[in-house]
Amino acid sequence: MSTNSFGTLNRRRILLFSVTGFTALLIFQLVQMQIIQRISYEEKSNENSVKSVYVDAPRGIFFDRNNEVIVSNKPTFSLQITPSEFDESLIPLIEGVFDLDSNYIENIFQTNRRFPKHLPRKIKRDIDFKSMAWLNENEEKLAGVTYVVDMQRDYSFGIKGSHIFGYTKEISSQDWRKKKDVYQIGDYVGHKGIEKTYEDYLRGERGIKYFLVDSRQRRIGSYLDGKNDKDFAKGKDLVLTIDKKTQIVAEESFIGKKGSLIALEPSTGEILAFVSAPFYNLEEFAAVTSQDVWNKLQSDPDKPLFNRAIMSRIPPGSTSKMLPAIIALQEKIVTQYSTYFCNAGVKFGNRFFRCHGGKHGNINILKAIEESCNSYFYRVIFDIGLDRWHDYAIKFGFGVKTGIDIENEVLGIVPSTDYYNNRFGERGWTKGVMMNLAIGQGEFNVTPIQLAQYVSLIANNGSTFSPHFVRGYVVSDKLVPLEFKKIETGIDKKNLELVKKGMYNVVWGDDGTAKNVRLKNIEIAGKTGTAQNPHGEDHALFVGFAPYDNPKIAVAVMVENVGFGSTHAAPIVKNVIKAYLEKVEIASQVEVKN
Questions:
Q1: Could you give the C-alpha distances from 283 to 44, 68, 148, 198, 407, in angstroms and in order?
Q2: What is the rounded distance in angstroms from the CA atom of residue 578 to the CA atom of residue 574?
Q3: Buried-most residue among 83, 232, 376, 476 (CB within 10 A)?
Q4: Nearby residues of 293 by Cβ (< 8 Å), 6 or more positions away
Q5: Selected residue with higher pLDDT from 494 and 77
Q6: Rounded to 5 degrees, what are φ and ψ at 542?
Q7: How many domains is the chain partitioned into structurally?
């Protein structure tokens, strides 16, 4: 009796405890779902019914120095696929409809495998209307496949500018992981040129729109009437220093040629025109660049991707003869009236170093520059000395980077005693190396941008600013100027004025080597040069500035494998100076009338 009573009571207690515990657990879970985790569940619910779409911000556009548009944007549509939602059995169908190579999508997935699968991959930019219509009609059968509105660069404004502007390229997984807070997978970022240097100004901030979607992920309307949408912020527009007309003339001058041209405003370092030829077509980089295009550019023997203006290292030839002239004047080694004797060359050791132009007799510094007398500079550089010559060359920007605002600039070579000792050993060279340095040959190597800065420093009496492409960026229709490094040589103005007079005589003197660049209404001063090339025809060089009495433009030109500078490089400088100064003159006349 007692045993049965105990058993019955124990069972009742166990049952009561079980019911009470289950009820308490159920209540706890309900409270947690309805109150504590309500927001989280609402968000998950919204993920099923609300779709977020990022809206890319248009990049800032480029204006030239006269506020003419030279690079803009145009709308386009891009196909994108989200791997976590996508049925890969549809790959052959998608590749067929959108005219993609076999395995193209798979390769993109593989390339971007480090990105999370729930983030969409851009597959093809600039898809056509026919493909868009097909996608709209079949969207419910194509889970994870959609399109977005993109902006791509528009280069239809008459300037090639491939080595100026650079281009945009899809962000790599490595860079994306470093900057997740700024970029999304599939974003295009600046790659080379101005696009890369000024990426932070140009990129803007993306917007986001929320849409209600049905169970098949079809859009059925805006979520909360767009209350939570965020507008994009367009990137900042840049005002460049380039003059559109001058740039076009410079580019046309290099059609069918290899070489480079840089035109600067001497007082500011602003780049008025910039050419590296041959060019490449930026339109082929506006959308996804095909592998065929890339392979063709990479294998082209003329190397169109190589930026000759800042990466070529060449002997400056006679264009550098103003350097020892300036040093000799500044160090009081010579005066305007002192002379050296030219007997058609100079003998050093067992070798006779010939002079350009034959026997000049007693010749002073002005005539030496005008007639490009090698003998004068052979003799004067020994009085200067190797290391003093080296130090002045550095002051004029040789052997160091100019600081131009695009990447991949190289240094060039300015030899010194240490340089020769390191290369040949202390007994492995003689002072005879200075004979070549005096006339811009031998181990002395410069870049075209360094030559342009050098002639700007001469034209502007020893000072300028680092060469640059960008004046500033635009905020609320106002230009915010950027600052650049000032360069000072410390050379006495009277010495530079004397050297400039010699350069004037190169063009306007009876015995000048560049009479063919004379213009009726513009006084050009300059210096021809020919850079020896052991691999073929010599390179033609010319540096010059104008107007002589108030320099507004300084130009350096290098044309590869054509011979003499006076024949091939000087006429290009003439055309570029004429194009720029005629426009400046017209603009000043308009200002006066107003």
A1: 43, 20, 21, 20, 21
A2: 6
A3: 376
A4: 284
A5: 494
A6: -155, 135
A7: 2
Same domain, 177 and 263: no
Q: How far apart are CA 109 and CA 118, in angstroms?
A: 12
Burial of 96-127, coded b for 16+ CB within 10 Å and e otherwise, reads ebbebeeebbeebbeebeebeeeebbbbbbeb
Flag whether pLDDT at 588 surpasses 60: no
Cβ-count burial 272-282 (b if 16+ within 10 Å, e if not): bbbbbbbebeb
Q: Report the C-alpha gap between 563 and 158 in whole angstroms.
A: 30
Q: What single-letter DSSP state applies at residue 223?
A: G
The three state secondary structure string of 189-206 is EEECHHHHHCHHHHCCEC
Q: Which residues span the domain enclosing 256?
A: 244-593
Domain match, 236 and 252 both: no
One-letter amino acid at 108 equals I
Sorted by sequence, the CB contacts under 8 Å of residue 240 that are 6+ apart come out as 62, 63, 64, 65, 70, 194, 469, 470, 471
Per DSSP, helices labelled H in 441-559 are 448-459, 493-508
For 40, the enclosing helix (H) or strand (E) is helix 38-49
CA–CA distance from 508 to each of 232, 513, 526, 546 (Å)? 58, 9, 10, 13
108-141 pLDDT, tens digit each: 888 777 777 877 888 887 888 888 888 888 888 8
The pTM of this model reads: 0.84
Rounded CA separation 570/291 (Å): 39
Contact 494, 332 (CB under 8 A): no
pLDDT digits 0-9 by tens, 460-514: 999 999 999 999 999 999 999 999 999 999 999 999 999 999 999 999 999 898 9
Tokens, residue 357: 């132009």
Over the chain, what is the mean pLDDT?
87
- 288 DSSP assignment: P
Is 395 among the domain residues? yes
Cα separation of 323 and 496, whole Å?
10
Given 224, 240, 256, the domain boundary residue is 240
- Do 209 and 293 reside in the same domain of the chain? no
The CATH number linked to 192 is 3.90.1310.10
- In the Cβ-directed half-sphere of 447, how many Cα atoms lie within 13 Å? 24
Length of the chain counted residue by residue: 594
Tell me the C-alpha distance between 96 and 514, whole Å: 61
Q: Are residues 258 and 233 in the same domain?
A: no
Residue 405 DSSP label: S
Specify the amino acid at residue 442.
Answer: G
Find out whether 523 and 546 touch, Cβ atoms under 8 Å: yes
**Three-class secondary structure of residue 463 per DSSP:** strand
Element (H, E) at 110: helix 104-111
| Percent with pLDDT over 90 in the chain | 55
